[in-house]
Amino acid sequence: MAETYEDRDGVIWMDGKLVPWREANVHILTHALHYASSVFEGERAYNGKIFKSHEHSERLRKSAQMIDFEVPYSAEEIDAAKALVLKESGLPDAYVRAIAWRGAGQDMGVASARNPVRMAIAAWKWGAYYGDAKFQGAKLDISKWKRPSPETIPSAAKAAGLYMICTMSKHAAEAKGCSDAMMFDYRGYVAEATGANIFFVRDGVVHTPLPDCFLNGITRQTVIGLLRQKGIEVQERHIMPEELEGFEQCWLTGTAAEVTPVGKIGDYSFEVGALTRDIAETYEKLVRS
Predict the structure, then answer these.
(1) Cα(282)–Cα(92) distance, integer angstroms
(2) Which of 52, 117, 235, 277 is the most buried (most CB within 10 A)?
(3) What are residue 170's DSSP bridge partners?
C-alpha cells in the first residue's frame, strides 16, 4: 500500500513546536475545514536551503491579511521554523509546506474573529510535479472553469479556497490523460494552469499573461528576471485564445512545477525548443547555487 500523508514518520512544526507527524491533527470543527479560512505556501529546498524562503514567508503573511487574519509569527520566525523542519527532516532536497488557518474556537459560523489562528510547517520528498512531462512536454486540457474577477475574490492571496476550481479542472484533465489544465480568466484571456503560471514563445519573444486576476508567482517573477538578464524580450500582457495557434514554445512555472515544458494544449501543439530548455537549465542552476 502506498504511503499516505497522514501516516508517516517524522515531525511537523505546529504552533511553535515540533510534534510527531501522526499527531499533527486539528479538531473536526476547525473553521478552515468548513469555510476555507486558510492560506499556504509551497516551497522547495535544494541542497539543504529553501529557495527564496523569506519571500514565501512574507507572502504567507500578506495572504492572511487579504483574507482578514494575522499570522501570529513574523516572517523571520517563519523562516527559522522552516529551517528547523528542513533540518529535522534530514532531506537536503524537499518540498516545504507552510500553512496558516483559523482554528476551532468560540465561533462556528461564517464569522470567526474570536477563533485562534494556527500554523504548521511540514517537509517531504517530492520529485518532478509533472513526472516525465518535465522533460518531454506536458499535455494540457483546457478547463471549463475560469479565473474569477478580483472584485469577487482576493486573487493576489495564496488562499486555499481559491484552488477549488483548480482541483476540479485538474481532475477533469487527468481523466482525459492530461497532466494539467490551462484556464482562461473571466474576460476570456489566457490565465494560467491550475497551480502554475504559463509562458509562450514566438519569434524569440516571450509572452506571459498579465497577473491581474491570478497569483503573480514567485517562480514566475524569478524566470522573468532570468530571461531579461539574458537580453530576451518579455511581454506581460493579455493573451487572446486565438493567439495560441501562433506560439512556437510553451512552458509552466511554479515552485512545484519548477520550469516544465508544454507540448500540447487542447488541439494546439508546441515544440520543446532551445529557449525552453535553456531557461529550465538556468533556473535549475540558480536554485542549486
Answers:
(1) 20
(2) 117
(3) none
User: Residue 32: which residues within 8 A CB-CB, separation 6 or more?
Assistant: 38, 101, 102, 103, 160
**33 CB-contact burial (10 Å; exposed 0-12 / middle 13-18 / buried 19+):** middle
* Per-residue model confidence as pLDDT tens digits over 181-195: 999 999 999 999 999
Per-residue cell: 29 = 470543527
Over residues 69-115, the pLDDT tens digits come to: 999 999 999 999 999 999 999 999 999 999 999 999 999 999 999 99
Cα–Cα distance, 195 to 257 (Å, whole number): 8
Among the options 82, 134, 139, 158, which is catalytic?
Answer: 158
Task: Please state, as a whole number, how many other Cβ atoms lie within 10 Å of the Cβ of residue 104.
Answer: 19
Cell readout for 74 is 513574523
30-56 pLDDT tens trace: 999 999 999 999 999 999 999 999 999
What domains, with CATH codes, occur in the chain?
Answer: 11-124 (3.30.470.10), 133-287 (3.20.10.10)
By DSSP bridging, strand 138-147 and strand 180-185 are: parallel
Backbone angles phi, psi at 142, to 5 degrees: -110, 120
Question: Annotated catalytic, 87?
Answer: no
**What are the cell numbers at 131?**
513526472
Q: Please report the beta strands in the chain, taking only residues with DSSP state E, as ranges in sequence order.
A: 11-14, 17-20, 38-46, 49-50, 94-102, 117-124, 138-147, 180-185, 190-193, 197-202, 205-209, 234-237, 249-254, 258-265, 268-269
